[in-house]
Amino acid sequence: YGGTGMQSTNYTSVHFLRGRQTTNSAGLVSFTSIFPGWYSGRATHIHVHVYNANGTSLKVTQIAFPEGTGTAVAAVNGYAKGLSGYTYNKSDNVFSDDTAGIEIATVTGSTSAGFVLTMNIAV
Predict the structure, then answer these.
(1) Where are the domains of the chain?
(2) Is 40 in contact with 83 (CB distance < 8 Å)?
(3) What CA–CA distance (Å, rounded) separates 47 from 38?
(4) Residue 109 backbone class (left: φ over 0; alpha: ψ -120 to 50; beta: rest)
(5) What is the tens place of the pLDDT at every residue in 32-75?
């Protein structure tokens, strides 16, 4: 996510939550990150933009966290804004209609040990 110009720019010295990875031969990719913050009106989420090797955009999507994950992180880690303005998936303008749960990741782990997010994205 972030536009095609991000694909040709070297962002190694900046510290905003953007990243690029190349999949392995099985089409799998792995990132290490921090838990994202949130803003009023949107549930906690991650943007994903998938490109092929030629730089052609194949898919733009978003990944939601299961309900309770964001609130647990806020409670334990003392987010300064707490849950003021927090939006749950059921009230989010993107995820609220996801009755099958296809946009919601599987998250395992804990606030003390860290989380692992798993998501299959069909391209």
Answers:
(1) 1-6+37-123
(2) no
(3) 13
(4) left
(5) 888 888 888 899 999 888 888 888 889 999 999 999 898 888 88
> Rounded distance, CA 123 to CA 59, Å?
6
Sign (positive or negative) of CA dihedral 67, 70, 71, 76? positive
Q: What share of the chain is helix, strand, coil (3-state, %, to 5)?
A: 15, 20, 65
User: Which residues, 6 or more positions from 92, have their beta carbon under 8 angstroms from its beta carbon?
Assistant: 42, 43, 45, 64
Residue 27 three-state SS = coil
* 21 φ/ψ sector (left φ>0, alpha ψ -120 to 50, else beta): beta
Q: Are 106 and 33 in contact (CB under 8 A)?
A: no
Could you list the beta-strand ranges (E) of 1-123. 45-51, 57-64, 106-110, 114-118
Give the Cα separation of 18 and 13 in Å (integer). Answer: 12
